[in-house]
Amino acid sequence: MNKYALQCLYQELPELVNKGVVTKEAAEAIRRHYGEVKMPDKKRFILILCAVLGSSLIGLGIILLLAHNWEQFSRLTRAILSFVPLVAAQGMVLWVLLKRPNSSAYKEGAAIFLSLMVGASISLISQTYHIQGEMSDFILTWMLLIVPLVYLMQATMPAAIYLAGIASWAGSFWHDPLQAVLYWPLAAVVLPHFIWSLRRKEYAVRATVLAFVMAVSVCFAASFSLGKTWPGSWIIIYSCIFAIIYFAGYWVFNNISVNWQRPLRLIGTIGCIVFAFTLTYESAWESIKWRGIGIESKLLNLQTLPDHLINIIIVSVALVLFYDYAKRRQYMRLLFGGLPLLAVAGYAMSGISVLFPLALMNLYLLGLSIYLIMLGIRTNKLGEVNSGMLLLGALILARFFDSDMDFLVKGLVFIALGAGFLMTNVRLMRWKGGAQ
Amino acid sequence: MRRGVIVGLFAALLVVQIATPLTMIAQRERLLKEGEQFKFKTIPFDPYDAFRGRYISLRVEDSKVPYVLGIDCERDQRIYAHIVVDDQGYAKLSGISKGVPKGKPYITARVSYLHGGDVFIDLPIDRYYLEEKAAPAAERIYRQYTDRRKKNRQDAYVLVRVKDGRVAIEGFYVGGRKIEDIVREESGKGYK
Question: What would the 3-class secondary structure string for B123-162 be?
Answer without folding.
Answer: CCCCEEECCCCHHHHHHHHHHHHHCCCCCCCCCEEEEEEE
